[in-house]
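A.,

Following up on our hallway conversation. Structure tokens first:
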């Protein structure tokens, strides 16, 4: 007797990254790059003590996040981009900035790691 196939209701099971934008848009992607940051180091020597070089943390730099080979079941992400284009320029960016959560999904469907991107735009 053949075992009936089970229907799987999870549309993003083949994707490694789940993206949530302010809780309204869900999408799955197979690849995400740019989820890192770099911290500049400021080196200086104090006056009168030239043998010792001091190091302080400087400005943080963030790479652009790129999501590749994705799918979504709605048009929320597209509508978000269109809302920025309809306002045009800086006012559109100010209005349409969102919080993005990128979640790394494990083989069993568990959440392994999550990144929060504040004040983001497409």
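Then the amino acids I'd put at each of the 122 positions:
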């Amino acid at each position: 007797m053949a075992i009936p196939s089970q229907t799987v209701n999870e549309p993003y099971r083949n994707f490694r990254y789940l993206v949530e934008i302010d809780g309204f848009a869900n999408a799955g992607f197979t690849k995400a790059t740019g989820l890192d940051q770099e911290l500049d180091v400021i080196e200086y020597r104090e006056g009168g003590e030239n043998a010792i070089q001091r190091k302080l943390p400087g400005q943080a730099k963030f790479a652009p996040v790129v999501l590749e080979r994705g799918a979504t079941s709605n048009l929320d992400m597209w509508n978000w981009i269109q809302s920025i284009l309809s306002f045009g320029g800086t006012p559109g960016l100010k209005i349409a900035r969102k919080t993005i959560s990128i979640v790394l999904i494990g083989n069993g469907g568990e959440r392994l790691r999550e990144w929060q991107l504040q004040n983001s735009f497409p």
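The first strand starts at residue 17 and ends at 21. Curious whether your intuition agrees with the design.

B.
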